[in-house]
Amino acid sequence: MYNVFEQFEIIKMWPIVLVEDMDYSLTNSSISVIIGVSMIYILVKGLRYYIIERRWEKIVKEVYILIYKLVIENMGGEGKKYFPWMLTLFVFIGILNLLGVVPYGFAPTAHVVVTFGLSFSIFMWVSYIGLKTLKLDFFVMFLPYGFPMILGPFIIIIEFVSYCVRGITLGLRLAANITAGHLLLGIFAGFTWDLWCTLKILAVLPFLLLLCITVLEMAMALVQAYVFTLLTVIYLNESLHLH
Questions:
Q1: What domain range includes position 91?
Q2: pTM for the structure as a whole
Q3: Rounded CA gap, 54 and 115, in Å?
Q4: Could you give the CA distance from residue 67 to residue 70 in angstroms, rounded to a whole number?
């Protein structure tokens, strides 16, 4: 890799042109998404219950419990019907984040266009659920109780802009954190390789540090997936209860 930004480049892996001027080619980004969806299906479909659980089944169970507690603690019993969606969201984003740490892998979540599309879709879904549940009472959130009516127009504008910005910041936060982590990993990997090519013995310590950074990046990938899911749960709860 000659440039640390090459890891974010979208490359056509399988050219497909079904209609003139309509390019449906598979890229490293779309293939990563397909892998993410396939892994979710394999994990769920392949899960079986035995008297003695296998190691990977214990991991799936812990993830299940983690997200279940997250939903219940923030939404109560009402959140049970949204739990499958939140679990899928966490696993999907977590897998996409981790794919960027794999050698020659690609993390679609490092691109703002991907995370923004995801966050905007969630924003529209949360708004739809709120409108469907509360009807016109949903708009009360833009004018909290207790404010003087003379300040009403200003408060409504501020609250409306603040609410709409969620659809941007949710995805922007994820993309920024994943990009920063991958850049740090790429820069340190390049430094370690250059040191190995010149003074091999001195590259041992940077290599060990690189392994530590890689583990840290994997942990951050899962943390960012958790934060994304947590914020989604909070926004959904606020839309349903006008907090």
A1: 4-241
A2: 0.82
A3: 34
A4: 5
